[in-house]
């Protein structure tokens, strides 16, 4: 059994290498739109962006190399000019200076912060309470090769198969190899995971994994990791946490063909004050974008802000069509006593329930998974989600049932205490009755294109975690590989970041004055602001419905084109409404900024999905129902390939004051 599997892996990797070279040689294949940024009169830093020839686009799908540019040492003439123009606008602005700015306090951001703090000052910027993150909700665990009978090759192969052969083999190798060490470090930092009777770590098994390799803390693994890391952060004198600071846009300038990141503008959502962070290095660790869909397992903070900010900052974005829908989120309407208030995020029923023997039935108690896949309930998530989607559509049902009640009560309660308690709140005893479930948006495989050190094409900007597209997941994420990826890349970005910090020469005091600050729209008055909020909420719901209806689990070219058109219209209409009400392009507010980002991410998903003329992994379209070997390339979105709207431009580069 083992030998042929290894051969399959070698074949696959050979093909992946080939695909990689095709991708870099014909990058324009993936282009959709070639409109330029609107050229604003004051902004010499944003020069012609539409040349397809970026110095870093060569070998893009391999390793993005950080280019060491000697130009850093001079402030170009144009910037100096610009600076004098805007200095006069800088009133009352609060600016903070750090060596490292970390956007996001999930596993990726915190893990990185703890490491770089040994070498300088760190700001951890986070939009809500520090623990509020996808990390905190992770149930299943972290995958790593820790069992003696397991191997890195086996973990790699499972990852590549789940990723439908679109993974970057080098990335996969790095992550699977470095995983075990990252787990040991987490334990050394105080995270406590479940142990078996033999005293070793208890390793669970999940769908798509051919070995037991999931390290977990009951069904609240993420919460335990988040707790341990936050505790360590609290005790670190070099780290300052800025909670309720919403990152609006990255501060970037252009030097020749290089984009350089100098920090980020934020708004303190409690005091409504704008705070500018100037940093030598910025790590974007802002997590996912689940809220582009109406039903998602992600907490409310996951509005794709990081992907949108990076896109506006001219970073390359990749693989956005691969949105993972978790097959089994709790279907509230199927509960004996449905919740009175609809939730911000759907409650997840972890894959481990299926791993532990959970069986899926339709409402007639027919077990349906074996009809779709020989692996039945243990088939990869995309297969399970599509099968459920098919059952729901065929039968016109609202949910299906996941039953674990054949297992012993003790076992269920010890493995899934959190799920059991949540269901019991609504009158359901999962040790006796099946759980109503539906698919919900869960994980964004695509994101900001990163090299093997978490570097991006923007100098000084690194990415780690769900916001990044490192090539690990390919067309579909293997269960429990995302916490692992976040840990590994947060660590890999450390050394190059420290290097960059040490070499960084910029007069930070001066840099802080290059752009006019965002404005809090107090002057509009509460009546108008309330109207704007209400309209924005409606627009958000409308965008989410469009995404669910036309860009969901099963897609078609016609639906995607409909989505593209309707999203474009909705965005223009929303922006026009704001400006009619007296809103100005430099104005900021939490809801408006999130809306900008949701639009941006939704458009990135739609345009990526339209580019892929095959069905692979999570992207399934009825017009191209099969895998197409020629299309086995990552989707790349270059800057300025999207249409020009207010939402698609950086806030501080909108207009002169
Ligand atoms: C319900 C659920 C269960 C999961 N189970 C598992 C599992 O078992 N195993 C696994 O490997 N993965 C799992 N995942 C996925 C995994 O949890 C995430 O991919 C991972 O935690 C991402 O970590 P992160 O650090 O990249 O981002 P997050 O943990 O999402 O952190 C992002 C941070 O950025 C902040 N932020 C976002 N935007 C801004 C902004 N504009 N300004 C300031 N701050 C901002 C957020 O507030 C947050 O602090 C699960 C996800 C969910 C939702
Ligand atoms: C700065 O802000 C403070 C309080 O927020 C205010 O009292 C003061 O007038 C402001 N100054 C300027 C120059 O705007
Ligand atoms: C804090 O950062 C400084 C460098 O700025 C470093 O010398 C010091 O060791 C760091 N302190 C800790 C506790 O990591
Ligand atoms: C792009 O924007 C212009 C105006 O800003 C609009 O007329 C056009 O329809 C848009 N195109 C798309 C594809 O959204």
What does this protein structure show overall?
Pathway: Cofactor biosynthesis; NAD(+) biosynthesis; iminoaspartate from L-aspartate (oxidase route): step 1/1. Belongs to the FAD-dependent oxidoreductase 2 family. NadB subfamily. Its EC number is 1.4.3.16. This protein is α/β, with parallel strands linked by helices and 657 residues long. It has 4 domains: 242 residues, 3-Layer(bba) Sandwich (FAD/NAD(P)-binding domain), CATH 3.50.50.60; 86 residues, no CATH class; 113 residues, Succinate dehydrogenase/fumarate reductase flavoprotein, catalytic domain (Flavocytochrome C3, Chain A, domain 1); 132 residues, Up-down Bundle (Methane Monooxygenase Hydroxylase, Chain G, domain 1). It is built from 19 helices and 19 strands. A hairpin with a 2-residue loop joins strand 7 and strand 8. Helix 3 runs parallel beside helix 14. The structure holds flavin-adenine dinucleotide and 2-acetamido-2-deoxy-beta-D-glucopyranose (NAG) (3 copies). The site of one 2-acetamido-2-deoxy-beta-D-glucopyranose (NAG) has 6 residues, from loops.
Please describe the structure with a list of short key phrases separated by commas or semicolons.
about 650 residues; FAD/NAD(P)-binding domain; Flavocytochrome C3, Chain A, domain 1; 4 domains; 19 helices; about 15% strand; globular; binds 2-acetamido-2-deoxy-beta-D-glucopyranose; L-aspartate oxidase activity; FAD; EC 1.4.3.16
